[in-house]
Design brief:
Blueprint (H helix, E strand, L loop, with lengths): L2 H31 L18 E4 L3 E16 L4 E6 L6 E2 L4 E5 L2 H29 L5 H27 L1 E3 L4 E6 L6 E2 L4 E18 L11 E6 L2 E13 L8 E9 L11 E6 L5 E4 L10
Antiparallel strand pairs: 1-14, 2-9, 2-13, 3-5, 3-8, 4-7, 5-6, 7-9, 9-12, 10-11, 10-13, 11-12
Amino acid sequence: MNGKKIAGILAGVAVIAFVVLKLKNNKEIAENRVFQFEKEKAISISAQAIQLENNDAAISFTGTFEPFKETKISAEVQGKINEIRVDVGTEVVKGQTLIQLDNSLLRLQLQAIEVQLEGLENDVKRYRILAQADAIQGIQLEKAELGLKSANVQKATLMEQIAKTTIKAPFSGIVTAKLSEEGAFAAPGMPLLQITDLSRLKFTIAIPESDLKKFRSKQTYAITIDVLPDDTLKGEVILIGSKANMGSSFPVQFLVKNSPDLKIKSGMFGKVLLKNEQHTKAIIIPSSAILGS
């Protein structure tokens, strides 16, 4: 027998030995994983008698809080922003000045109109005296009076434009976004600030049609906040949806008064709690009896 045949036989024997050892190892691992029931060993168990009990658990519906009012502030006239008097997080009150636009050119135009008005008022006074003495025709007085009225309209227009260069808060709230900076150019419709009113909140849930009868307009319900479990609020129903969404659920919206320190923020989750008025009986299993998932 030559050397090549001997080497081939040895290689075959080695492969067979490796496979046998691998199978034996896998068998031992499988046996260790399988529960081995020992007939002689006692198994400790606990039992609890179950019976019908009152099923008075409260029903809850999850929803989210959102601000009662929120708006983006923009300018009604164009101009350079000279001053922004608030920043993100600033509490503002209705009528407070937020932004001041440049109005120097408008004020110069107003001065020119006021000079023109002074001259027109003097002309009207002279023409009235002359018209009473039949020294001029009445049409000259009428033209002077019309010119005076037109100048007054121009003055009122300029004063209105100047007033609009001072941007004020439309309602009380908190500045939640600053969308421009001093020195930038403001144009009508371009948002500059965002104000959010958190003193009152809207809380919205989505419920199936079978639960719509549980809610009535203008009625108050208990609402809890997930991150503030010890606080319970009262919410008044202000909207019961008339059209279902894509998931065949109907929106129900509540008006909630925030705490004085505005602890409830927009986007927080909460629950509406309803008492179970049916007082049905059911077999209740303790949660400790459920093992696994």
